[in-house]
Each structure stands twice: as C-alpha cells, then as structure tokens.
Amino acid sequence: MLKRNVSSISLDQREVTRLRVLEHIRTKGAISRIDIASELQTSPATVTAATADLISAGMIKETESDGTARASKRGRPRVLLQLDGNFSLVAGLKVARHQISVLLVDFAGAEITSFEHPLTNPCMDPHTFTETVRKSVEGACASIGRSIDDMAGISIGIAGLVDAERNFVHWSSSLTDRNVDFGPLLSGHLPCPAFVENDTNLIAKAEQLFGLGKELKNFLVITVEHGVGMGIVLDGKLHRGERGCGAEFGHTKVQLEGALCQCGQRGCLEAYVGDYALIREANIAGHGNEVQSVADVYANAKSGDARSVSVLDRAGKMFAMGVSNLINLFDPELIILSGAQMKFDYLSSPEVMTRIRQGVADVDAPLPEIKVHHWGDTLFTKGAAAYGIEQVSILKVKELASHAD
Ligand SMILES: [Zn+2]
Fold first, then answer.
1. 255 CA distance to ligand 1 centroid (A)?
2. How far is ligand 1, taken at its centre, from the CA of residue 237, in Å?
3. Which CATH number characterizes residue 103's domain?
4. In angstroms, what is the span from residue 122 Cα to ligand 1's centroid?
C-alpha cells in the first residue's frame, strides 16, 4: 500500500525513508532508534536523520521506556519513539443511504469522537454531496469544540467504482452523475486535503491494520449491504486494478439476462443479494404488507412465510456461487464477510458453506477460512480514518523541510 502512494505521489529517497520510519513506528507503537534501524535493515545514521526530521515536524516524540527490563546495560532508561497524536486531526467518513458517519481521530489513530449526519436524499448531485460532506465534518468538529479548519485531512468512503489515486468516481449509487472528478470540487469546498475511496477498500484497509487481516498476505473482504462490495489484498497490498475498479464482486454476472441491477446492467450478483434486491423480490409477491427492510424479510422468513424463505434461499445460493468463484480465482488465505446483512445468518448458514465448498475446484488441501466479522458502520469510518492518516502522513512527509544536513 505504501508503495502505491509512494509511486503515485513520487517521493524522493529521503522522503521514502522518513515515511518507512514513520509507518514502522506506527506499527510498533513505541520503539528505539536502534531497533528501527535493525528491523528496517538500514543504518543507524539514516534512522537518526529521519527521526530528527519527524521530531522537528512534530509527527513523533521521544518517550522513556519504563521498567528496568528494557533499560540499557548502563541502567539508563532507553529512549523510545512514538507518534505524537497532537500532530493532526483527521476525519474518516462513510457515506451510507440514510446518514454520513464521521469518525475524528488524532494522528496516532486515537478515536476522538463519532458523529452522524442524517441524509434526506441518498442520491445527490456532486455539488450537494460535497457540501453535505463539509456539513458532516463541521458537525463532528463542533461537537468537540473544534473547527473544520483544524482538520489535516478528510477521507471519504463511498460505494461504487472509485479511482482513489485520482479522487475520481466512475459511478456510485450515492451520486446522480457518472464520472465525477472530485479533486477540484473537494479542494474548492474544504479547507484541507480530502481523499475519496471505495468503501469496501477501506474495510479491507481496516481489517489489514487492526482486524482479522493482520499479518495476512492474501485475503478478501466481502461486504453485503445495499450493494455488494469487495476489497482484495494480494501480497499485502490492496489490489485496485488499472482503472481503480477491479474488485466489483457485486457486478459479476451470475445470470444471463437476469435481474436488473442498480448499475443498469442485468444479472449482477448484487441484484440478487443486495438489500434493495431482497426487498424488491419480497414485494413482487405482493403480501398486502410491503416489506421495508431486510430485517422485515428475515423476520417473515423466520415466522415461516414461504415466499420470504424462498427470497433468502435464492440469495444464499447466488452468494455461494459467487464466493466459490472467488476462491477459484484468488485462492486466498481468508475470506471475511462483513456489512450490515451479516447480522442475519442466511448468507453464512451451513447450507451456504456447503454450497461454497461444492463450487470450489477440488484439491486435497483445506479451503480458505471464511469468517463473519461484525463491525457495523464503525468499521467503515475506522478504515476511512486509517486511510486518511496514511495519506496525510505522505503529504506531510513531502512538505517537511529537511533537517539540517
Ligand atoms: Zn450491477
């Protein structure tokens, strides 16, 4: 992940070193200069120079290790380096159907506050969207007596096909327009840098940094909510594809000329599994009582309504087919199932798991693990905040005046 940003923003060698040192300190929490040098296989002098730059910028600070176990042989406490949370304030946002959720964090990732801004219209024009993002962040800042002008970065998670490196949204169910170049819009409306990313990529990032994907090289995250999203981590890096839209599991086709999808095409997996698909299907049968939510469909199925059972049963079969295909394609170590629909069990039932197994090409080795991870919306905002901190770090490292040579 670091590499992608480094290559896209083009840092020089000194900046790359600063960033590596900074990210290593972030991973370790608190660490001595000599340990950084040995773990990054670089010279102590290089580490000393990089940490001096980072300290003078206020991004990291020195702290003394307590206890004697880690003290040096002479009995002096060892000096450790850790992030300085006060360096900056970053906002992570998730744009959902009915609200924008905001999480404010400090530079060390400590959570400061969460805030919800209700949405009256789930599908906005780009201008309204940007204004609403601004209002959400202003609301979050006001709740802790701060101002949006205090923000160092705002990271926005949105469903759809996003080219994160360019802040370009090919298509999103939250936007009335296609092909939105958010770069100029965001810089015109917000006082700090802002970053747009596909929401499921943010979950993959959160899983990699602090969730089930820690220490894993190859894993997939699938989210099922209004739509179906996926984040792909291959060889430790988020895989986005050439145009930034290479993980569109929800729009893989499971039926020729099948159900109409919100993307405008037919037969997409999402058109059988997404919230809107289940609600639409349940209402076709015409109960008299229109169902409004997946919870309604689930409740009706649990109380024995045959039509609701059939809707969920088909969704489970379609989902299983899709997941088998993913295993055949990627052979990951782990598949993480996430998103609001996972609070119901029909996509992770023993029958669905059996179907997944049946659809995977048979080899004499165990299947990848499939785990359900319930995080709710905090996962999206946590991932957005993590992405925001990463991007802010890169920009700040780039801005740093080099320390006295
Ligand atoms: Zn589609």
1. 11
2. 26
3. 3.30.420.40
4. 18
Report the separation in Å between the CA atom of 248 and the middle of ligand 1, taken as the mean of its atom positions.
9
From ligand 1's centre to the CA of 262, what distance in Å? 6
- Distance from residue 240's CA to the centre of ligand 1 (Å): 18
User: Do residues 57 and 132 share a domain?
Assistant: no
Question: What is the distance in A from the centroid of ligand 1 to the CA of 293?
Answer: 20
CA of 269 to the centre of ligand 1 (A): 7
Q: Does residue 197 share a domain with residue 72?
A: no
Please tell me the total count of domains within the chain.
3
What is the Å distance from ligand 1's center to 252 Cα? 7
Q: Both 101 and 175 in a single domain?
A: yes
Residue 400 inside a domain? The answer is: no
The pLDDT profile of the chain, 405 residues, written as one tens digit per residue, is 333 333 356 788 999 999 999 989 988 889 999 999 999 999 999 999 999 999 999 999 999 876 544 545 556 678 999 999 999 999 999 999 899 999 999 999 999 999 999 999 999 999 999 999 999 999 999 999 999 999 999 999 998 889 999 999 999 989 999 999 999 999 999 999 999 999 889 989 888 877 898 879 999 999 998 899 999 999 988 898 888 777 889 999 999 999 999 889 999 999 999 999 999 999 986 666 788 999 999 999 999 999 999 999 999 999 999 999 999 999 999 999 988 888 888 999 999 999 999 999 988 888 899 999 987 668 889 999 999 999 999 999 988 865 544
Tokens standing for residue 301? 């199925």
Q: Is this prediction's pTM over 0.90?
A: no
Residue 178 lies in a domain: yes
250: number of Cβ within 10 Å: 27
Is 383 in the same domain as 368? no
Between the CA of 405 and the centroid of ligand 1 the distance, in Å, is 55
Both 127 and 233 in one domain: the answer is no
Range of the domain at 29: 2-83
Could you tell me if residue 402 is inside a domain?
Answer: no
